[in-house]
């Protein structure tokens, strides 16, 4: 869509011989907006996040930010982009330099871009820490003196210090305890409102996208299987994989009361992807066409796109084998 | 009428590191064929409880006091050889990282047969039981010829469960067995555990920080915080009508899906 | 929701001297190691004043005092030409440790930049540097040093150059591994994502986190260099008599070892104490620089 903040077109990324991302197209409008990327191992979701930050090289396709092709950015232009797009990683234990004090770590980001004059850095750091829900006193501490949740807050504060318009959050809460997770999600939600943030939320957790993302894309083996409004994906999925994934998520409310869709076989090997639709070996609805023809992402409803030959059948309520437990 | 003593009965269990007490558990019971969930955040003491039951707490420098009874037999006072006979054989354990169960330099099958022979099986018997157990967990027996690095996380975890089955374990201690697995793989492993309970009557103590998983799998739920049990009872009750503020807070923290399927 | 730190407040107002003293008290390795090294330095500087027979450190010969056992007149005894061993050991502090330090400084000066470049930049830079390094590593170190020393005029300078030339490849390898490992960590990736310059990443993140093993290795190597130097000196390729190089003294005194044990023992002990002192210092510095272990906080 024109005027989108971020546009991915046919993005492809290689890790050696393996195509981790294979033809992904996504649009992220300007903030406040959240786009969720859901997938399991091998889906390529983290790689997409890194590609957006230019931390890995693209093998094909394009990424455009504010109309500019980021692959062609150099020098000052690249540095400017680094101010506009930031990332928060999954691992709170290793995302901060253990030998640097918290305040220094955040100030480093400020100084790299001259966000504030040197004398004001301390004040700005204090403000950022407070915004992230931490007492400014933390600035003199070292990472090992903080808990996982606190370190993640610092990572968020640092990412926000350069005032980005786009934030990539790569599994920001997966390594945290339940209550800490809830607090961090609340923090992100608050920051989104305050700063008009646009973010790409990479996760395997449906509950997280449900709370923070207007739109969600489901990824499988480097491709987009389905993309649409989050609520729609959760209630009326059009792709068998989305359906199965949704069904596999444990929920407190459904304690012991349900049967679950079972996907046969094992997650695919990215090194030797199946022909045709990459999901067909595990798809209970697969027909001959699925084995030979790669499905193209197409509209099944306004704003809702699926890459499946049988999307209409899924929407109509096609039965998929369940575990039938209880 | 005699109230059955329960398969595993823990009373007054205290685990400490010197002065610091990390577990202080009044009572916990695991009945035959029951799945009990031990829920809590990090530092709640759930993993130390597992180690204490296995008689391995001293290996990390902790001291244990209190009573842990298996079918009425006191475990805390057993001699090391007697404990070794029980550990793995009657009480099996699987952990978050299945790689910890399998040394990377041996084929998976080698470790299997070694464990079985350690507990008395002959070579032929071991091979048979291994194959049978693999089939029970819906894995092809010839996967036993592979090295751990050649199997996926989900497969390894199922092999670990198969090992417990082959040893005819009566109790399975599962410490965050699905936390490192993808959602769909987790669903399979949970289904597997449930069906095994049905077919073999195995009791499972399932430890997890994920309340949703505990909710789906467990009959009884025990919520731990700071080494203490703050609430316990039937899953349906604890999760729908919690009484302890901590439990309530935990439940509120679980992200809700916008709409049910 | 503001989170307050769970630790007692930091005493940021402590004057530097008091903070240093507290650091030393909490870090005994550093204190002892540092004190010993300091002692060696002091002895070296004050050698002419401390040594009872300063002349014996140079060309001297006392035919009537040959091979005297340790006594009140000569605490460490005398050697085969009658020189006071104590004095020679004292003057030795100006030779062996100095050579070791110079060698290691040169080795680090070459090895660290090459290793960090190879580890951090990767690609063809890594390949080029490592292949060159591998060539050097393929030679047995002592033989290579021998070869080099033999083509240079026999002197302490040649000795230093020869050993340094053999030592640097090991540091390239060490630093390369460390730098590569640190470069892959999420916090370095975060720095790249934040647009922090490569130069700053190398100096503020890679080096501080990669240097610790080097520190320990260097402190262990002090003893190693001294011994290598002594081997070369023994073969006549480095220090020459009458230079009071400890290694040379040990080498020369070997043939007199039975029954005149003191020719070998005291210089040997000097090497031992020096190596030990630097080991402790290295360990202490490592602990001091590690925020997780340092009790300065």
Structure at a glance:
The complex is a heterotrimer of chains A (326), B (261) and C (297). With 261 residues, chain B is an alpha/beta fold. Chain B has nine helices and ten strands.
Essential attributes:
heterotrimer, B: alpha/beta, six-stranded mixed sheet, four-stranded antiparallel sheet, 9 helices, 10 strands, globular, C: mainly alpha, 12 helices
The largest β sheet of chain A comes out as:
8 strands, mixed
Give me the strand/helix succession of chain C: HHHHHHHHHHHH
Percent of residues in beta strands of chain A:
15-25%
Biggest pleated sheet of chain C: none
Most extensive chain-chain interface: A-B, 42 and 41 residues
Distance between the termini of chain C: 27 Å
Q: What's the β-strand tally of chain C?
A: 0
Show unreliable segments of chain C.
none
Uncertain ranges of chain A:
none
Count of helices of chain A?
11
Percent helix of chain A = 25-40%
Number of strands of chain A: 12
- Helix coverage percent of chain C: 55-70%
Question: What portion of the residues of chain C fall into strands of 2 or more residues?
Answer: under 5%
Structure description:
- Chain A is α/β, with parallel strands linked by helices and 326 residues long.
- Chain A has 11 helices and 12 strands.
- In chain A, strand 7, helix 6 (178-195) and strand 8 form a beta-alpha-beta unit.
- Chain A starts with 5 loop residues before the first strand and ends in an 11-residue tail after the last helix.
- Chain B is α/β, with parallel strands linked by helices.
- Chain B has 9 helices and 10 strands.
- In chain B, the strands form 2 sheets. Chain B has a 6-stranded mixed sheet with strand order 6-7-8-3-9-10, sandwiched between helices. A 4-stranded antiparallel sheet of chain B has the order 2-1-4-5, with helices on one face.
- In chain B, 47% of the residues are buried.
- Chain C has helices at residues 16-26, 28-45, 47-50, 85-92, 96-121, 123-138, 141-151, 156-183, 186-193, 198-234, 246-253, 262-289.
- Chains in contact: A-B, A-C.
- Chain A binds chain B through residues 40-41, 177-182, 185, 204-208, 210-211, 230-231, 234-235, 243-256, 258, 260, 262-263, 266-267, 323, 325, and chain B through 41-42, 152, 154-155, 182-188, 190-191, 194-195, 209-213, 215-217, 235-236, 239-240, 249-261.
């Amino acid at each position: 869509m024109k005027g989108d903040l971020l546009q991915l077109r046919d993005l492809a990324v290689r890790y050696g011989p393996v195509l981790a991302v294979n033809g992904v197209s996504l649009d992220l409008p300007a903030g406040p907006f959240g786009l969720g990327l859901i997938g399991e191992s091998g889906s390529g979701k983290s790689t997409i996040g890194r590609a957006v930050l230019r931390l890995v090289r693209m093998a094909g396709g394009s990424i455009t930010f504010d109309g500019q092709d980021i692959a062609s950015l150099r020098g000052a232009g690249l540095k400017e982009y680094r101010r506009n797009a930031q990332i928060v990683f999954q691992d709170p234990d290793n995302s901060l330099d253990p030998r640097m004090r918290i305040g220094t770590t955040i100030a480093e980001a400020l100084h790299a871009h001259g966000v504030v004059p040197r004398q004001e850095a301390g004040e700005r750091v204090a403000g950022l820490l407070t915004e992230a829900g931490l007492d400014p006193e933390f600035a003199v501490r070292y990472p090992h003196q903080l808990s996982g949740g606190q370190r993640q807050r610092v990572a968020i504060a640092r990412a926000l210090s350069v005032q980005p318009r786009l934030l990539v959050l790569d599994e920001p809460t997966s390594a945290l305890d339940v209550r800490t997770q809830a607090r961090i999600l609340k923090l992100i939600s608050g920051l989104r409102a305050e700063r008009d943030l646009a973010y790409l939320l990479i996760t395997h957790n449906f509950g997280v996208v449900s709370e923070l993302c207007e739109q969600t894309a489901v990824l499988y083996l480097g491709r987009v299987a389905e993309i649409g409004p989050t609520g729609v994906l959760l209630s009326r999925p059009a792709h068998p994989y989305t359906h199965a994934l949704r069904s596999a998520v444990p929920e407190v409310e459904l304690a012991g009361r349900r049967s679950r869709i079972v996907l046969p076989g094992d997650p695919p090997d990215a090194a030797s992807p199946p022909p045709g639709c990459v999901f067909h070996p595990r798809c209970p609805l697969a027909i001959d066409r699925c084995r030979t023809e790669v499905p193209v992402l197409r509209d099944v409803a306004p704003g809702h796109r699926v890459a499946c030959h049988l999307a209409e059948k899924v929407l109509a309520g096609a039965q998929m084998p369940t575990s039938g437990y209880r | 009428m005699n109230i059955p003593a329960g398969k595993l009965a823990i009373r007054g269990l205290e685990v400490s590191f010197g002065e610091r007490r990390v577990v202080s558990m009044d009572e916990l019971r695991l009945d035959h064929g029951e799945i009990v969930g031990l829920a809590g955040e990090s530092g709640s003491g759930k993993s130390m409880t597992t180690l204490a039951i296995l008689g391995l707490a001293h290996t990390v420098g902790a001291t244990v006091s209190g009573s842990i009874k298996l079918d009425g037999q006191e475990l805390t006072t057993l001699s090391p050889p007697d404990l070794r006979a029980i550990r793995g054989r009657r009480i099996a354990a699987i952990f978050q990282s299945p790689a910890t169960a399998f040394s990377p330099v041996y084929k998976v099958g080698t470790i299997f047969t070694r464990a079985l022979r350690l507990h008395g099986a002959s070579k032929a018997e071991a091979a048979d039981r291994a194959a049978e157990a693999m089939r029970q967990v819906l894995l092809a027996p010839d996967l036993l010829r592979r090295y751990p690095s050649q199997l996926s996380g989900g497969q390894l975890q199922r092999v670990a469960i198969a090992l417990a089955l082959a040893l005819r374990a009566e109790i399975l201690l599962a410490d965050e067995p699905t936390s490192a697995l993808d959602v769909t793989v987790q669903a399979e492993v949970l289904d597997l555990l449930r069906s095994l309970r049905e077919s073999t009557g195995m009791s499972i103590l399932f430890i997890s920080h994920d309340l949703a998983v505990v909710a789906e799998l467990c009959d009884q739920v025990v919520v731990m915080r700071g080494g203490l049990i703050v609430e316990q009872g039937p899953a349906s009750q604890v999760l729908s009508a919690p009484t302890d503020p901590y439990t309530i807070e935990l439940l509120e923290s679980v992200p809700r899906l916008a709409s049910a399927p | 929701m503001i989170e307050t730190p769970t630790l007692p407040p930091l005493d940021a107002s402590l004057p530097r001297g008091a903070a240093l003293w507290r650091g030393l008290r909490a870090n005994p390795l550093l204190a002892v190691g540092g004190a010993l090294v300091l002692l060696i330095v002091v002895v070296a500087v004050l050698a002419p004043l401390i040594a009872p027979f300063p002349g014996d450190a140079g060309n001297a010969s006392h035919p009537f005092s040959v091979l005297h056992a340790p006594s009140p007149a000569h605490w460490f005894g005398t050697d085969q030409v009658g020189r006071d061993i104590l004095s020679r050991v004292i003057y030795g502090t100006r030779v062996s440790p100095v050579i070791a330090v110079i060698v290691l400084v040169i080795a680090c000066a070459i090895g660290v930049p090459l290793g960090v470049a190879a580890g951090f930049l990767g690609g063809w830079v890594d390949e080029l540097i490592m292949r060159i390094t591998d060539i050097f590593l393929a030679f047995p170190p002592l033989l290579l040093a021998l070869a080099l020393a033999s083509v240079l005029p026999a002197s302490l300078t040649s000795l230093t150059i020869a050993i340094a030339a053999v030592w640097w490849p090991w540091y390239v390898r060490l630093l390369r591994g460390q730098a590569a490992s640190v470069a892959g960590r999420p916090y370095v990736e975060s720095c790249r994502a934040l647009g922090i310059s490569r130069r700053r990443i190398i100096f503020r993140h890679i080096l501080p986190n990669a240097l610790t093993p080097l520190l320990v290795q260097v402190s262990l190597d002090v003893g190693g260099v001294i011994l290598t130097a002594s081997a070369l000196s023994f073969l006549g390729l480095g220090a020459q008599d009458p230079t009071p190089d400890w290694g040379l003294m040990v080498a020369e005194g070997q043939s007199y070892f039975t029954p005149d044990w003191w020719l070998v023992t005291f210089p040997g002990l000097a090497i031992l104490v020096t190596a030990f002192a630097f080991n402790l210092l290295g360990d202490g510095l490592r602990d001091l620089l590690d925020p997780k272990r340092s009790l300065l906080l």
